[in-house]
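Most newcomers find our protein records easier to grasp once they have seen one. A learned vocabulary of local backbone shapes supplies the integers on the structure line. An example says more than a description, so a record of this kind follows:
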Amino acid sequence: MSVAASQITRGDIVADAALGALDGIDDHFFLEIGTRRIAGVPVGDVERARDDCKTSSVHFMRFALTDEDAAVFRQPDTRVMIGFDHPNYGHLAVIGDASRAELAKDLA
């Protein structure tokens, strides 16, 4: 499994009010390798939600990749994206070629 970290910020300031609207975001992270979407699994070492239902601004996810996923990830022409699709906020980011190439070394 590969691990990724995500931080939810607004400029340089974590948007405290927005974090209250993102309860349960851990269930909405994904990695897209080409056309395949792989759900993120939260790293369970620390609870990321507070008693007042505000989520943490930092989340650690694991992505279970098959051997085929890893092979496709290593192909230089494959588009790889990470994102989340929470009902109150979504985001998608393309992993750049240099970053993807470095990450691909870990999958060899």
